[in-house]
Give the backbone structure.
Amino acid sequence: MIEETIISRAIIESYLNELLESIESDVIIGGAGPSGLCAGYYLAKKGYRVVIFERALKLGGGMPGGGIMFNRIVVQEGAREMFDEFNIRNHEYEPGYFVANSLEATAALTDKALKAGARIFNLITIEDVIIRENRVSGVVINWSSVEIAKLHIDPISFSSKVVVDATGHQSEIVHIVEKKSGGKLLTPSGRVEGEKSMHADVAEQFTVENTKEAYPNLFVCGMASNAVFGGPRMGPIFGGMLLSGKKVAELVMKKL
Ligand code: 48F
């Protein structure tokens, strides 16, 4: 006989235990797109306590949608090793251009991040940060449904040694810090420099180069790096996103 109440208890208790264990962690990552998942995987694999908050129901950010809803992604020579690391099947379309199924890529990143030990909470939005002594020391979260329904419900806070903004084009966490710090970011102008128009080749390099600390204890990766440090966008080529996720994990490990 199946007892409905046992199913309910199993779900509630198991979820809440994981949420309680996540109140204090080493790294909070905002956004479970390709760069955030990749960063979470590399950090969790090394034993760091990683918590990822994702606003959406489904993971992967812009990855599953491929290019104009054609569920394929491309990575360039120099990033193919990332496909190998995540065991994502691919083929060389033309010399130096490797194509893969974006659904497989999303599933592989998610699977690896979770199994490495990253705790991923979907349907939760980071709406603010905690700043102590001019350093980011955590985030303020609420259910995404509260945001969508515009309900007047107070959020709660989670602390971490480091926060990573992997929220993509919007770079939402850095925007919050820019506003609340009065423009004291570690960018040339102290403010968000803003994303430039499409230039895939330059953008791919820029993403990795500008994966860095944008405010004390707040790092950026993926498209957020371009938006914050003023680089171009690149469309459905994903090598830079994955390499950026790997690089931010290395920078965070050094910091910790
Ligand atoms: O946009 P997204 O996929 O970011 P990414 O890892 O990759 C960018 C590429 O997908 C693509 C591209 C590559 O060629 O240009 O755009 O840099 O994933 C960002 C995730 O962050 C979530 C959002 O729902 C998405 O899944 N997100 C955004 N703001 C918040 C958030 C927030 N405030 N709190 C939680 N999650």
